[in-house]
Amino acid sequence: MASSRSRNMRDSNLREFLHVNLDKTKGEYLRSLGIGNPKYVETLKMFENLAKIADSLCQGVDSDDDFEKLKHRVVPVHPFAVREISVWNAQIRKRLRRKAYVKTGWKIVLVRDLPMKIYEHIECLCTANTRYATNVSRTSKEDIVQFTDIRKVNYIFKQVGVDDSLKKAISNVGTAKVIVSAEKPFKLVYLKSKEQLKVIAHFGFWNVHGVAQF
To answer: Residue 178: which of 190, 191, 192, 163 has the closest Cα?
Structure first.
């Protein structure tokens, strides 16, 4: 019982310490912004979320149950999002070829099972800094992101540190490469109920003389 009281006291002290410091920082930061600042409400929500995270962490810190600790562990999403984008790049380049596919024609379609939180982070990565050549639409069933310029697609892959060429040379025959335009967008279609993502990329093939073969 004494041990339980001690844990509860430590937990209470930790909560108080975190909340006091969060409240102090929040007050100072919000005062510096001013109520009329467009970022005021967004920042207020951010601090509210931080307070919730702090509470969750406190619940797990003094628990004797390892499973209980894991329940409150916060796992960063970013590395998973970067890994996922890297997989698209590798699979698209692998599937580039000199002939159209029987089912999809001159399109490569990747189907990926993807938790919504990771998809949401990926969408943020794809639209961060610039929305150039980017169209986003949403319904209750799906989110669709379309990129209409190859430079934007290359930029996304480059940002996560992978090869951004999206082409494959076929020895003594020619080169297959991804095509991105308003008519043939690079598309992400996220099905919310299935938590499934479709990555759709158009491609073409050019012979050694640079003549299109599609």
So the answer is: 163
| Count of beta carbons in the 10 Å neighbourhood of residue 102 | 6
Read off φ and ψ for residue 179, nearest 5 degrees: -115, 130
* Helices 150-159 and 78-95, axial angle in degrees (round to 10): 130
Per-residue pLDDT reduced to its tens digit, 102-132: 999 999 999 999 999 999 999 999 988 888 9
Q: Is residue 213 part of a domain?
A: no
* 214: in domain: no
User: Which of 31, 48, 72 lies at the terminal end of a domain, its last residue?
Assistant: 72
> CA 139, 144, 147: angle at the middle one, nearest 5?
150
Residue 119 inside a domain? The answer is: yes
The pTM (predicted TM-score) of the whole model is 0.69
The string of pLDDT tens digits covering residues 21-38 is: 878 887 887 788 777 776
Domain that holds residue 150: 77-207
